[in-house]
Design a protein that fits this description.
Layout lengths: L8 E7 L9 H17 L4 E7 L2 E7 L6 H18 L12 E5 L4 H9 L1 H4 L5 H11 L12
Antiparallel strand pairs: 1-3, 1-4, 2-3
Length: 148
């Protein structure tokens, strides 16, 4: 019987609405576990999760029966509910997101980057980081519509 097989790695990034610093240090480990569990339930393997005060990154596989938009939407919806259940009543994510394909040859590099968010953001804001990713991947964008 023929099989449909795939292994597509995604680096997904999105911020809190208006980049509000709502991701508190004391919630991060539980947030990471929740995101990993959510992705697992969606048949996605998580390589890394990392967050800073106003945004999150995760590196995962794209399930062969899902679109990028569906996967990210489900993670954002579930994690928004999780934040509210954990006392962050006015929590919401930005409307958009960024997702980039990652070669298996650089998984460890991307994983290390994601896991060291606090260190990166001592030198660079989320907005600068995000724009650098868009530029590095050659993504065309209108900055007027990138931020909400």
């Amino acid at each position: 019987m023929p099989q449909s097989l795939s292994k597509i790695y995604l680096h997904c990034v999105f911020s809190t609405k208006y980049r509000r610093p709502l991701i508190k240090d004391d919630l991060r480990d539980d947030l990471y576990a929740y995101v990993v569990g959510t992705l697992f339930a969606l048949h996605s393997y998580t390589v890394a999760v990392g967050a800073h005060k106003d945004h999150i990154h995760f590196l995962c596989t794209l399930p062969r029966t899902s679109t990028v938009a569906e996967l990210i939407s489900k993670v954002k919806t579930a994690s928004s509910k999780w934040f509210k259940k954990n006392g962050v009543e006015d929590f919401s994510w930005q409307n958009g997101y960024a997702a980039f394909s990652v070669s298996s040859s650089v998984l460890e590099v991307v994983k290390g980057y994601i896991q060291n968010q606090d260190e990166h953001h001592r030198k660079k804001t989320f907005q600068k980081e995000y724009k650098n990713f868009l530029d590095d991947y050659g993504v065309e964008y209108n900055e007027q519509y990138v931020w909400d």
